[in-house]
Each structure stands twice: as structure tokens, then as C-alpha cells.
Design a protein that fits this description.
The protein contains nine helices and two strands, in the order H-H-H-E-E-H-H-H-H-H-H. By secondary structure, the chain is mainly alpha-helical. The chain has a two-stranded antiparallel ribbon with strand order 1-2.
Length: about 260
């Protein structure tokens, strides 16, 4: 089993930290995919040792990944007591996602009615700049996934906070605790047909339009754009949960070769 400890010839401290972070991100994506596709069924105890051997890492990145998934609502437990996969249905997740989108639309409208504070604009601008930097990379690797998840969460949180309604914040936080419903719980997969970069570009475009509506004090438009943003994300999540991007590609049947060496049409 590979040793995750850093040695003097493993490069600089920064390189070692980046490698460790990459391992955690890789393990997190794989475990999340295994839970969503029910390779790790609901109610099952997560076998840390077996998973570490399967993924060819030590148990440390597996434990860190499980803590991340616990924050997303996919598992429960602790590193000391062990983790168990939470039970959930696609219908529960998608309906909660719809409620989240409605709350965010209401928050955007309310934020405009109250008037955006300079601090809120600064928070949103920081998210936009981070999104632009990620899009400019032209790809979405494990580190990009981590940064985009954090950026997305910060963007949505800034809008909910800007509404200034404590009751809204409490209901929103409760809804976001459902598995895969939180803005930071973006379902990335290792499947080559799941274009994570394209999804990030689309979402960043939505953020730009939402920010524009907020700055122009267009409450109705901001409300609509937030709901539409949520609808698009919900539809894509539904596809992933139904396995449409995770299902194996059926083998292509070769066309019979006719006489003369040309394939039949």
C-alpha cells in the first residue's frame, strides 16, 4: 500500500501538499460516485481498509474524504467510530434541490429590495473572479473541482445572507443538509462522458447573469435567474443520479466487411 508520508526527495513542501490534496480529491470523487450508484449501499458501514486498498492509497485520504462526504450528507459518523452510508432517494434529493432554488430566488429578490451592501458586492465579485480564473484554465481537474465547489458555495451563501432574513437562512441551511443539495456538494464523477468543465462554464455563466441583475437592482430578473440556475443544476443532477452519465457505454458493433474490403453501409 502506498505511503502518503513525504520524504526529502518528494519535492518541495508545496508539491507534497498539492499531491496529498489531489489524493483526497480523487478519493472523494470516487467514494461519492460509489455511494450515488449504490456500489456502497445505504446503511452499509464504509470499509476504510478495503477502500484504501482498492484506491491504492493509505487510510488517511479515505478518512478525510469521508469527513467531506459527511458534510455533504452522504455518510454519517466520525473517523473514530466509523462511517455509515445514509439512506436517500433521488426523489428526496431533487425535491429538496427544487426547494433550495425557490429559496435562493426569493433571497435574490429580497436582497435587491433591501439594497445590496458594498460588502455583499465585494463577496460576489470575489466569486466571479475566482470563477473566471477557473474557466480560463480550460479544464476541471481535482483541484479545480475543489475550488469551484468552494466558489459556488460562497456565491450562493452571499446572496442568501444579503436577504437579511434569519428565518430564511435557517430553512435554507436545513434544506441544504440533504445529501447533494448544498451548493458545495457538486456531484463530479470520473466518467469520461460527464464533462465537468462544461458544467462549470455553464454555471459560471449563470453566476455572471445573476450578478448583473443584482447590480442593476432588477429583483424580478434576479429571482428568475436564480430559479433557472437551480433548475438547470437540478436537471443535470437528476441525470447523474439516474445513472445516465455513469452507465457503461455499450460496445460498438463492427459493421460486416463486404467483398472487396469495403464496409457495408
Amino acid at each position: 500500500m502506498p505511503d502518503d508520508r513525504l520524504t526529502p526527495d518528494a519535492g518541495t513542501a508545496c508539491d507534497g501538499a498539492a499531491a496529498a490534496s489531489s489524493r483526497v480529491e480523487h478519493v472523494t470523487v470516487k467514494l461519492r460516485e460509489m455511494i450515488v450508484t449504490h456500489a456502497l449501499p445505504a446503511g452499509a458501514r464504509v470499509p476504510e481498509r478495503d477502500l484504501a486498498e482498492l484506491l491504492k492509497v493509505s487510510r488517511t485520504p479515505v478518512r478525510v474524504a469521508l469527513e467531506i462526504l459527511a458534510a455533504e450528507g452522504l455518510v454519517r459518523g466520525s473517523p473514530n467510530r466509523g462511517f455509515v452510508v445514509n439512506a436517500f432517494s433521488s426523489e428526496d434529493i431533487l425535491s429538496a434541490f427544487q426547494v433550495r432554488s425557490m429559496l435562493e430566488g426569493f433571497a435574490a429578490r429580497t436582497a435587491v429590495e433591501r439594497g445590496l451592501q458594498p460588502s455583499t458586492i465585494k463577496r460576489l465579485e470575489a466569486c466571479i473572479l475566482e470563477g473566471e480564473a477557473l474557466v480560463a484554465q480550460g479544464r476541471c481537474d481535482a483541484e479545480g473541482m475543489r475550488r469551484w465547489s468552494a466558489c459556488n458555495g460562497a456565491f450562493h451563501a452571499a446572496i442568501v445572507d444579503a436577504a437579511g432574513l434569519s428565518a430564511l437562512g435557517k430553512v435554507y441551511d436545513f434544506t441544504a443538509r440533504m445529501p447533494l443539495v448544498s451548493p458545495v456538494a457538486i456531484l463530479f464523477t470520473t466518467d469520461r462522458r460527464d464533462d465537468a468543465y462544461a458544467r462549470m462554464v455553464d454555471a459560471h455563466g449563470d453566476h455572471l447573469r445573476i450578478f448583473d441583475a443584482l447590480r442593476r437592482e432588477e429583483g424580478d430578473r434576479a429571482d428568475y435567474l436564480m430559479r433557472e440556475h437551480g433548475y438547470r443544476s437540478r436537471e443535470r443532477l437528476g441525470e447523474l443520479l439516474r445513472g445516465e452519465a455513469l452507465r457503461p457505454v455499450p460496445p460498438t458493433r463492427a459493421r460486416p466487411v463486404a467483398k472487396g474490403g469495403r464496409r457495408e453501409r
